[in-house]
Amino acid sequence: MSISTTPPVIKLALHTPALTELQSVLTDGLQKSFKSASVNVVDCPNLTEKPFMLAAAGICGSPRLADIGGPPFLLPEVQRQKIYQTEMLSKLMDLPGAFLIGAGAGPGHVEGVNSEMMCNVNLKDVNGCQTHLAKVDPKDGSCILKQTKSTEFMLMANLLCSEGKSGKVLEIKASHRVGDDNFPTTVRKILKAKYDTKPVALAGVFLLEKGKAKLHVMPDFSCKPLNSMEEVNNWLHFYEMKAPLVCLGELISHDPDLDLREEHFHCFSDHGEGGHYHYDITPDEVAYRAYFSVPETLYRIDKPPNLLNFGKD
After folding, report:
1. Overall domain count for the chain
2. Which residues form the DUF1907 domain (predicted)?
């Protein structure tokens, strides 16, 4: 699609267990993967404050999930016409003026280069774009983290769209990982084991409070075609980054044949580090704190012909 084209949309109602039920399900599972883990139903804290620094106070109010585009738009050559506007997307999701947070590719048509996006946009606020971008410095390969005022992006994103209100959310605290999977994968697999083919999604923000994590940042678009996952992984730049990292995104327990990204989180910080979260690399010291809402509806927007298993490691 171009910026002036309305993309195709598939709408699906998600399974939404009660927060108290999810509290019990996740507590039992997380305590098998972390030495310390607790799940509580709480009033959402003011997420505009540090360390979260979001563009709205809460993640409640008609929460819905958007899975937009996908990695196939990078392969074999980037489809530069795939440009999306958050304003248009909020209308497609029947929630104009929404608060949108999550992970995606940055506005390469604005920045002039490719980047990782940490979408953080409150469309009701004239100064409500607090999105961060992570780029690769072409001089030395280091990560550059910056803010942008653009409310557009390219290629792909997984976004929580809500009214940005306060309300009841799941608070998850977990530390000292003993399981093999990363934090969001652990949560997703617990939900999958419980709800099987009923798609249950959680979306919002988690904080890597202690420890370090492996992240990647996409460099500028490849000058040569990328024809395999091996070529894609060789193209990406990988980093070890330290806490605190604020991670925005979503996870869903089951893909009902819509080629969904089952989990996708991007991180930013106030110390110049950020990118696509893979997993923590210091299990003995890692600590997480998450605030998640339960999206009621999924919008699959501009679904590519085939979605590759990209960026889940």
Report:
1. 1
2. 25-301
